[in-house]
DNA sequence: TAAGTATTGAAAATTTATCGCAAATAGCCC
DNA sequence: GGGCTATTTGCGATAAATTTTCAATACTTA
């Protein structure tokens, strides 16, 4: 569980940009923080999970919040399956990781690699880009 | 220019799976083979290019063909921009490469890295997955 | 060349995500 | 706490990308 962002830390970061902490945003972040490592949620997944918790948050707000948190660097947007995005906490080193995905059944395995992180920062630096995230996605077929 | 798949090689590979070589499929592959290195086409891009060449191929067929060629491993599907996919030839080593993408303006730089290819094949092997493609995508902001 | 099946084009449908707007509410000052 | 104001929400409408349906067409193979 990632405890980087307590509700008050989230509030501070939001308010610094003129945005507001709402119960919806707090609950959504909490769900990602309590999500077992290796799980990834789509907007629909998240919305269903909220309905299950009797948290009534509209699908529009789910989409808006996912986009906001990803742009703030709190969540990471992943392309693990066809047709929709998945999200997870954007964890810094040493929890930063990559994904091995089966293109047939979408089964996904996470793995860490400091050398990839090195390649990523070296390339960004070489072209003067400011690094935000680097993801190695391995498309493969599971046994 | 990639000459791995001549029309007859494409035909052989299609027929082996009970599929057929059509003029549409042949033309679409040719466009990718003649595309300058570093260019990436969306379905709409490709369709416009076909109209320019007075090749009358429906948008449905463009989508169907892109999906088919990608599943055959002939094309590579890339997530370089929000909202739509891009495609390029899936070139083996030593032309295999990765992408540094500006999330603000979508400017994309290609780079090669044999160490990433090594990480990719090692991970796939470790879990018994059959490797299809591995792509490092670096999200960053250009200067 | 004829039979049989895969493929195509065109339009409709589906899926994913965004938008407009009125009502609700967080942050702020008193 | 009570009001002020800009932000956020929920809802329905809308947009954009991709897929599907189906009748007509065209590959393959024998
Ligand atoms: Mn993950
Ligand atoms: Mn490329
Ligand atoms: Zn699988
Ligand atoms: Zn840029």
Note down, in words, how this protein is organized.
The structure is a homodimer. Chain A is of the alpha+beta class and about 140 residues long. Chain A has one domain: Orthogonal Bundle (Arc Repressor Mutant, subunit A). Helices cover about 40% and strands about 25% of the residues of chain A. Chain A has five helices and five strands, in the order H-H-H-H-E-E-E-E-H-E. In chain A, the strands form two sheets. A three-stranded mixed sheet of chain A has the order 4-3-5, with helices on one face. In chain A, a hairpin with a 5-residue loop joins strand 3 and strand 4. The model of chain A has no long low-confidence stretch (mean pLDDT about 95). Strand 5 of chain A pairs antiparallel with strand 5 of chain B. The complex binds manganese (II) ion (MN) (2 copies) and zinc ion (ZN) (2 copies). The site of one zinc ion has 5 residues of chain A, from loops. The structure holds a DNA duplex (30 and 30 nucleotides).
Topology:
The structure is a homodimer of 143-residue chains.
Chain A: H1 7-15, H2 23-34, H3 43-52, H4 59-71, E1 75-81, E2 84-89, E3 98-102, E4 108-111, H5 114-126, E5 130-141
Parallel strand pairs in A: 3-5
Antiparallel strand pairs in A: 1-2, 3-4
Chain B binds a DNA duplex (30 and 30 nucleotides) through α4.
């Amino acid at each position: 569980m990632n405890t980087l962002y307590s509700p008050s830390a989230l509030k501070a970061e939001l308010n610094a940009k003129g945005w507001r902490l709402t119960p919806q945003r707090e609950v959504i972040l909490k769900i990602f923080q309590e999500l077992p490592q290796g799980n990834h949620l789509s907007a629909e997944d998240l919305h269903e999970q909220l309905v299950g918790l009797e948290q009534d948050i509209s699908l529009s707000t789910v989409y808006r919040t996912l986009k906001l948190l990803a742009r703030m660097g709190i969540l990471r947007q992943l392309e693990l399956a066809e047709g929709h995005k998945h999200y997870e906490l954007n964890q810094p080193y040493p929890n930063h990781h990559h994904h091995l995905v089966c293109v047939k059944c979408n089964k996904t395995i996470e793995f860490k690699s400091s050398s990839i992180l090195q390649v990523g920062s070296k390339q960004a630096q070489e072209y003067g880009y400011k690094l935000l995230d680097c993801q190695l996605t391995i498309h493969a077929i599971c046994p």
